[in-house]
C-alpha cells in the first residue's frame, strides 16, 4: 500500500520543477509526488510529463485549466489521491522555500509521535526566515499573532504551508467546507483541524525565500487572510465540530485515474 504523497501546486515553476522532484525522490524515505499544475504557460507540465517516464508510478500530474487558487489545488490533489490509499499527505512549495529534507522530519512526527498534523514552523523557535525583506518578515509574524488573538488557535505559524496530514484528518476535512483559496486557506485548515480536536505539532524549520521564479504573494491574498479570519471565527460559533463516526468509502483508484497521469 502506498504511504506518503507530496502534493506540490505549480504555476510557472519551470525553473524549479525538475530539481524539486529529483530532490524528493532522493530522500531516505520513499515519497510519491503529485504535481497540481494550473495551466502554466511556461511548460511546467511538459517537464513533469517527461519525468513521469523516468519515475513511473511515483510521479503524478493533475492538470487544471487556469489559476484556480492554492487552496483548491491542494484540495483537488488530496481528493484525487485518497482512493490510492496513501496514509500521509504533505503540502510543499515547488520553489525550495521549504527544504525537502524536512519532509522526513514531518513524516516521523506524525508516524512516531502520533501527531495528526505536523506543521513546518518558521516561528516555533524564534524567527527562522532567510532572504525575506524585514517588512515581509514582520507582516508574516504579526499575521500569526493576529490569527492567534482572533481565533484562540495556539499554533505559532498558522499561515505555514509546509504540512503533513494523516489520512484520518483529511477524511474529515474533505467532507467539510473549506472556503478560502489563497493565503487564508492555510489558516482555515489548521483552525478546522483544531476545532475537530486533532493534535497539531509544530516542527521547527528554516524557510528560505525562492531564488528562482516569481513569488505568487499579493496584497489581495493578504487581505483575504486579514478579513477572512474574523469571518471564519464568527462562522465557527454556529457550527458543531463533531467527527463523523463513519465515512463513505472513496471510489477505487482506477475510477480516479482519468484526471491524472
From TrEMBL:
<dbReference type="InterPro" id="IPR039528">
    <property type="entry name" value="DPM1-like"/>
</dbReference>
<dbReference type="InterPro" id="IPR001173">
    <property type="entry name" value="Glyco_trans_2-like"/>
</dbReference>
<keyword id="KW-0808">Transferase</keyword>
<dbReference type="GO" id="GO:0016020">
    <property type="term" value="C:membrane"/>
</dbReference>
<keyword id="KW-0328">Glycosyltransferase</keyword>
<dbReference type="InterPro" id="IPR029044">
    <property type="entry name" value="Nucleotide-diphossugar_trans"/>
</dbReference>
<comment type="similarity">
    <text>Belongs to the glycosyltransferase 2 family.</text>
</comment>
<feature type="domain" description="Glycosyltransferase 2-like">
    <location>
        <begin position="6"/>
        <end position="173"/>
    </location>
</feature>
<dbReference type="GO" id="GO:0004582">
    <property type="term" value="F:dolichyl-phosphate beta-D-mannosyltransferase activity"/>
</dbReference>
<dbReference type="GO" id="GO:0009247">
    <property type="term" value="P:glycolipid biosynthetic process"/>
</dbReference>
<protein>
    <submittedName>
        <fullName>Dolichyl-phosphate beta-D-mannosyltransferase</fullName>
    </submittedName>
</protein>
<dbReference type="Pfam" id="PF00535">
    <property type="entry name" value="Glycos_transf_2"/>
</dbReference>
